[in-house]
Amino acid sequence: MTGLVSGTTTDQWKHPPRQRWLYIRDLLQTLVARNMKLRYKRSIMGFAWSLLNPMAQLLVFGFVFTTVLPLNISNYTVFLFSGLLPWSWFSGALFEATEAIVGNRELIRRPGFPTAVLPIITLLSHLVHFLLALPVLLLFILTAKITLTWAVLALPLIIVVQFIFMLSLAYLLSTIHVTFRDTQYLLNILLLLGFYLTPVFYDSTAVPQRFHLIYSLNPMYHLINAYRAILLHGVWPDFVALGLVGASASALLLLGYRYFLHFSDQFVEEL
Amino acid sequence: MGAEIVVRSVGKSFRRYHPERPRTLQEAVLSGLRGLRPVERFWALRDISFSAAPGKMIGIMGANGAGKSTLLRLIGGVGRPDEGQIHVNGRIGALLDLGAGFHPDLTGRENVYINGVISGLSRREVSRSFDSIVQFAELEDFIDSPLRVYSTGMQMRLAFAIAAHAEPEVLLIDEVLAVGDISFQQKCIQRIERFKSQGCTILLVSHEPALIVDLCDEAIWLRAGTLVCHDEVAVVTDRYLSESKKETERRTRRERPAKRTANNKRSVTESLE
């Protein structure tokens, strides 16, 4: 095989990089808007509908851990919701992004379509749901008479770090799913375990010291702590931890993206 | 306008796997990670070289499975050749897999935007040619209805109309002219001729030699992944037609004995079971 010299050079975008970038932006905007429309189209209550799942979880966990097995965490509603929302974004988006390649056969086969935007579109669509739910969280914060501080300004940073981490996983998972079609099923099990092993509904200080090292290897642990720091406690997040998570997530993203690109030529063949 | 296409000794192989190749991690683990590697490579295209001068229209013919669509996709940058190189320097428009990204629950209008952007237009370009697209598809009265109320022909008309507004320099067409009724087919052909007169380089895959003779300057004949000839359109179609005729005669003559052996085989396997 003469792998080194073979290739396709298509200068099909003829546009300078700026225009190419504008095109990608249009593509993201249009396809994310498409997902939004499809989700909310048929019900005027579409937005409320999308909140049903986190609200139901909130009710059940709230009842169990304040009444049945009291954890004695102050402002438990805000505490719980500020963990549930980022986790729902994480698990819902990753689960769906795993199918981003397999579920878009006709787009993959289209000349000039940048395959790498597909996982991004799924994550962005779920990010919009996450952002739409934030006002509800704000309502809980105000009801609980928690005062917001300037630390809230760190929110976009935390979201960006979480996005990078999720995207790196999405590239890996969607590529593996092309070959092994039970990846999504296995991911579902891992996400369920992850939900309990990440301090979503309990406080990380309750974790015994000897497990701290293992817990700290979980990026979602640091991210949820950061959300709680700025929203619940009104303090700046642990920037060192956040920086480390950001750096390792970026490295993982580079790896995941290269893995994705390496196999992307085979997607057409395998679908 | 118009761009050159150069295809230099291109080969594309597909991996052929064991029929029991694991498709899930579960099966992979149970089979002890066997059968994950391809058994052999099967060449869908081998040693294909040709070039299309700017503004030329080339017809590609050949039997089913000769590699026509694979060639068109490779030129469009979908997948990578295992051997050789392909150079295309211009914006590629494609009339293959029409209607990618269409969703039945969205209106025609919404689908035009989505499909237009997928086809390589910016949102502003779609807005600019929106009326013209709808007019071309003759769907003015339905454009705000959800796509699920459209007939298949109407959907295809909309898809072709969008693709026809992408202002390509290189156009790849794969058997999509069987779209809609005869008057719409005529309209599609006129549109393609207009692209041609504007200097667009076009590759057309078709099973209809008459269509290729009508539209193309040159023709290419593919057989089992190799290029049989590339010449003036009349020369290639003549050879192709006479060969196809011989092939048909040969097959019909073999038909009956072949059937009998197939029956024999079946009864043998049945008795074994």
Provide the fold topology.
The complex is a heterodimer of chains A (271) and B (273).
Chain A: E1 7-10, H1 17-40, H2 46-68, H3 76-97, H4 105-108, H5 117-143, H6 155-179, H7 183-197, H8 212-216, H9 219-233, H10 239-270
Helix pairs in contact in A: 1-5, 2-3, 3-5, 3-6, 3-7, 3-9, 6-9, 6-10, 9-10
Chain B: E1 5-16, H1 25-30, E2 40-52, E3 57-61, H2 68-75, E4 83-88, E5 92-95, H3 108-118, H4 123-137, H5 152-164, E6 170-174, H6 182-197, E7 201-205, H7 209-215, E8 218-223, E9 226-232, H8 233-272
Parallel strand pairs in B: 3-7, 3-8, 5-6, 6-7
Antiparallel strand pairs in B: 1-2, 1-4, 8-9
Helix pairs in contact in B: 3-4, 3-5, 4-5
Short description:
Chain A has 271 residues and is mainly alpha-helical. Chain A has 10 helices and 1 strand, in the order E-H-H-H-H-H-H-H-H-H-H.
